[in-house]
């Protein structure tokens, strides 16, 4: 037994991880005032999700889900100017988490 038992990649619910990354990254950046710290949260969750997507799906699906996750982060900024920051983060989180569930977690 190793000192740290890491959950099997195929058992990780990536919709939850994606939600934690996008919401957690936003909250961390907003409340700390340190935007790069929010990026660390976003990147850590993204890496964890990619690890699971590679184990559970194929490479094109992993690339698509990763692009949606990163693209959602990028799209939330101009969207926030139109509908506000919280609605924008909730919208991109819902889209990313929904896709992660449908294309990875539900299988």
Name a few traits of the molecule:
mainly alpha, 4 helices, 81% helix, 107 residues, 0% strand
Explained architecture:
The model has no long low-confidence stretch (mean pLDDT 96). This protein has one domain. With 107 residues, it is mainly alpha-helical. Helix content is 81%, strand content 0%.
- Integer count of domains: 1
DSSP, total strands: 0
Supply the helix-strand structural class.
mainly alpha
What is the general shape? globular
Give the rounded overall mean pLDDT: 96
Radius of gyration, taken over Cα atoms and rounded to an integer in Å: 14 Å
Question: What low-confidence regions span 5 or more consecutive residues with pLDDT below 50?
Answer: none
The proportion of strand residues reads under 5%
Helix content: over 70%
Distance between the termini: 29 Å
Tally of contiguous helical segments: 4
Largest β sheet strand count, sense and barrel closure:
none
What order do the helices and strands follow? HHHH
Protein topology:
Elements: H1 14-32, H2 35-56, H3 59-83, H4 85-105
Helix pairs in contact: 1-2, 1-4, 2-3, 3-4
What's a quick, concise take on this entry?
The chain has one domain (13-105).
């Amino acid at each position: 037994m190793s000192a740290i038992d890491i959950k099997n990649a195929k058992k990780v619910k990536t919709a939850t991880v994606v939600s934690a990354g996008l919401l957690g990254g936003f909250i961390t950046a907003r409340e700390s005032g340190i935007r790069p710290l929010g990026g660390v949260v976003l990147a850590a969750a993204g890496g964890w999700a990619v690890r699971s997507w590679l184990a559970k799906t194929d490479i094109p699906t992993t690339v698509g889900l990763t692009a949606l996750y990163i693209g959602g982060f990028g799209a939330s900024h101009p969207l926030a100017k139109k509908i506000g920051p919280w609605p924008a983060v909730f919208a991109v989180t819902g889209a990313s988490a929904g896709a992660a569930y449908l294309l990875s977690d539900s299988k």
